[in-house]
Amino acid sequence: MSRLRAVTRVMSLLLVVLVLLGAPGLAPRVLAEEGQPPTRVVIPAIGLDAAVEVAGVVVTPGGPLWDVPEDAAGWHATSARLGEAGNLVLSGHHNTGGMVFRDLHDLVVGDLIYLYAGEEVHTYAVAQRVVLRETGATPARRQANAHWIRATDDERLTLVTCYPWWTNSHRLIVVARPLEGQDKAAGASVAMRSARNVPIN
User: Which pLDDT band, with edges at 50, 70 and 90, does 29 fall under?
Assistant: First the structure.
């Protein structure tokens, strides 16, 4: 058993307990065996090429929170895997640690995002960008904000970070949709060139 799969199973057990306790934004789901967790994210439009690791969960007085890796994007282990129907969620820091999602706010509709699992690549195009107030928001508003990272019936990628860069008062949400057919093939070709030209350290 790979280290990533072992960690994923442990995190899944913990998250089931948190869901039973009523943790917001941690909706239960069944992980498909054929799907793979992402291991790398590449976004040429903002010069991003970063590893993806499993995001942990920490329990705080205000409830459980996702523990985002310092120098990588964090994959929410309760979210979809690559190629699955559902919401695949990645979180990343914007003004601390490696600042992986520092320039996420510069993305516009149509920008391409590539997720890797080893050599396998999946291509997405940005479809929506939303900024949500978190600091000072009512509990009802925060629950409404959390729906962006919950399970969906359609296949999508959701990127989450804090906003703006000088504080953490808001959340920036970027939703991307998988490309199909010729668009997907063209995107994969660009991704392979990006992989050769911008190697991950």
Answer: very low
